[in-house]
Design goal:
7% of the residues lie in helices and 43% in strands.
Length: 430
């Protein structure tokens, strides 16, 4: 039976999600799900869900892929790996240039859920493996699909990185930024690279850097070029510096168990259709004193209560978000975090409800712990502004990731030759 001819499992879920998936018609090299039955796509190294999907070239490092299919019938899913440029376009390389073994393989490890509403099947995969190995560093996509890679058969795509650790990265965040208007508000990244002789040919043209704040791609600083060269040292000394909004600590909620209401959960409703979790109403935070609330920098930890197997016994719930603030005329409000794969799209869009005079949003989520923020996207723009609702604080403990690329000429592709992850005001270098 073809994937898209099977019986719909949860009619109400599909009625809510289908407008979004009908809109997402073409497959992109992004963290996106294209099939409404697919939920909770995770990609991480080893057994650490909170670690970024980065592995070293030529090592024994492996990535774990996990996802749920809201179905009571198993299907033969396939996957392939696609090499991308530093800006996530499909590279010009042939698969034989960057893969060894097969160019596609089957996902054969799956387990049926136990007493879950709705029922689902959890699929897992560990790679690289004996079927597919990786020969080159850079940005990659894992694409999971039925039958073939035509867009209509693709279930989801997920980004990951393969690293050659050849460049030393030196970073710090100064107390006083270059632009004094940013004092106590913005976070400036001071950056230097120390490169081996291998990369001293045309460094200004062939070396570039991307810097990510937390897990966000929308406000990522991309294609940063060195401003000066001193022997083996590349400096990135921009006039106003490399600057990010400080923002605020992430909001969170804990629904690892549906037996009790943890902080920030107002109500848990359980009926024949499953669970509905209502969060306490949120309020804007600008102008309020900064408060250090421990968070996991926008990530999510999928975990059921103690004694449960999360992969097969974790339950799903509709989570209801409420934000008390006047309706915006010149922008839209979105949920932002790993809970919706950091996507500013219809799935995480907050809608103003005139009946209750506040914004409302909902997501279908598996048991676990979740961080999130509210971001405003001005009309006609694509970058979210968290400061409008969350405030802007220099002290915020953000996680930054530096990716260093080198443009190889033969064959022509972007090598990932440097990587460093650090927290503001707890800076370490690699």
């Amino acid at each position: 039976m073809h994937r898209f001819q099977k019986v719909l499992i949860v009619i109400c879920l599909f009625c809510y999600l289908m407008p979004y998936y009908a809109w997402a018609q073409s497959v992109e090299n992004n963290d996106l799900v294209y099939d409404a039955n697919i939920q909770t796509v995770l990609l991480y190294p080893g057994g650490d869900q909170l670690a970024p999907p980065v592995i070293k070239l030529g090592s024994t490092d492996k990535l774990t892929l996990s996802f749920d299919d809201l179905s009571n019938q198993s299907f033969l899913f396939k996957y392939t790996l696609i090499h991308c440029t530093k800006d996530w376009q499909t590279s010009d390389l042939d698969p034989m240039d960057y893969l060894e073994g097969f160019f596609e393989a089957d996902i054969t490890n799956y387990n049926f859920s136990l007493n879950a509403i709705p029922p689902y099947i959890n699929y897992t995969l560990s790679f690289p493996n004996r079927d597919i190995q990786i020969k080159l560093s850079g940005n990659y996509i894992i694409k999971v699909y039925m039958d073939n890679t035509e867009d209509e058969n693709v279930l989801f795509t997920k980004r990951f990185y393969v690293l050659e650790p050849l460049v030393k990265i030196d970073v710090n965040i100064p107390y006083y930024p270059k632009n004094l208007d940013f004092v106590r508000k913005k976070q400036q990244i001071n950056l230097k690279l120390f490169t081996p002789d291998l990369f001293n040919t045309e460094p200004e043209q062939r070396m570039s850097v991307n810097i990510m704040q937390n897990g966000r791609y929308d406000n990522m600083k991309v294609d940063l070029k060195p401003t000066s060269l001193m022997l083996d040292q590349l400096n990135f000394d921009y006039t106003d510096g490399i600057v990010f909004d400080g923002g605020n600590q992430f909001r969170n909620f804990d629904m690892k168990s549906f037996y009790y209401q943890s902080m920030y959960i107002s109500e848990i409703i359980n009926d024949v259709n499953g669970y509905n979790v209502v969060l306490h109403t949120s309020a804007p935070r600008p102008g309020k004193p900064y408060s250090l609330i421990e968070d996991i920098n926008g990530r999510k930890l999928i975990k059921a209560r103690q004694g449960q197997n999360t992969n097969t016994e974790g339950e799903y719930a509709w989570v209801e978000f409420y934000l008390k603030m006047p309706r915006l005329k010149e922008g839209e409000i979105y949920l932002l975090g790993a809970l919706n794969d950091w996507q500013l799209d219809e799935k995480g869009k907050m809608v103003f409800d005139n009946r209750i005079n506040m914004y409302h949003g909902r997501l279908y989520l598996k048991q676990g712990y979740y961080d999130y923020l509210y971001a405003v996207v001005p009309n006609g723009e694509s970058v979210g502004d968290v400061t409008i609702i969350e405030g802007d604080h220099w002290e915020t403990k953000n996680q930054y990731t530096v990716y260093v690329y080198y443009r190889e000429k033969v064959p022509e592709y972007d090598r990932l030759v440097g990587y460093s992850q650090f927290y503001s005001f707890d800076v370490s270098t690699e």
